[in-house]
């Protein structure tokens, strides 16, 4: 009976597998940002610490959104193992550079999943991915604007403190 019910879902095994892989990527992002939050907090960069703690929560929410989607389509979501999360980071700027690189990687992943959904004619999942692709536009935008602060203000003297003070003002107004 269980198999019969599963057959009624249109989530193919391939799509289920790539969505499960993306659950892991989101969990990795969440853990990475939490580590960045701890590092920034240790450096006395309170706003950056709060920024990354909030990002970490958002990534967990992304993970759960995919997790629940796989489940609701009759698939079996996997609670992922997360490893290789750094404790130390080279610099304040380096943390934001790594965050941008992570977001660019996530965008690539979603584009690739969307490609596969189109090929598999899984338009329901393709539609589901739209929310994530829009979210990526915002996340990359914010990361780039914050990195600009490092160029504009500079880290010398009270620069780091100034950057930390200003980064909370970076928002995405949308299109
Ligand atoms: Fe869930 Fe920032 O990617």
Structural account:
The chain is an all-alpha fold. The protein has one domain (10-169): Ferritin, core subunit, four-helix bundle (Ferritin, Up-down Bundle), CATH 1.20.1260. The protein is built from six helices and no strands. The chain has helices at 2-7, 13-42, 46-72, 92-119, 123-153, 159-166. α2 (13-42) runs antiparallel to α3 (46-72), α4 runs antiparallel to α5 and α5 (123-153) runs antiparallel to α6. The protein is elongated, with a radius of gyration of 18 Å. MU-OXO-diiron binds next to α2, α3 and α4.
How are the SSEs placed, and which strands pair?
Elements: H1 2-7, H2 13-42, H3 46-72, H4 92-119, H5 123-153, H6 159-166
Helix pairs in contact: 2-3, 2-4, 4-5, 5-6
The chain binds MU-OXO-diiron (FEO).
MU-OXO-diiron is lined by residues 26, 29, 59, 62, 103, 106, 139.
Classify the beta-strand content into a percent band. under 5%
Mean pLDDT: 94
Bound ligands, named by name, code or SMILES: MU-OXO-diiron
Helices and strands, in N-to-C order?
Answer: HHHHHH
The number of distinct helices, counting runs of at least 4 residues, comes to 6
Low-confidence segments: none
Helix content: over 70%
User: What's the story with the biggest beta sheet?
Assistant: none
Query: Which class do the helix and strand fractions yield?
Result: mainly alpha
How many distinct domains? 1
What name does the CATH topology carry? Ferritin
Report the principal-axis shape: elongated
Task: Tell me the radius of gyration.
Answer: 18 Å
Q: What is the H level of CATH, i.e. the homologous superfamily? A: Ferritin, core subunit, four-helix bundle
CATH class term: Mainly Alpha
The count of strands amounts to 0
User: Any idea what the CATH architecture is?
Assistant: Up-down Bundle
Separation of the first and last Cα atoms = 48 Å
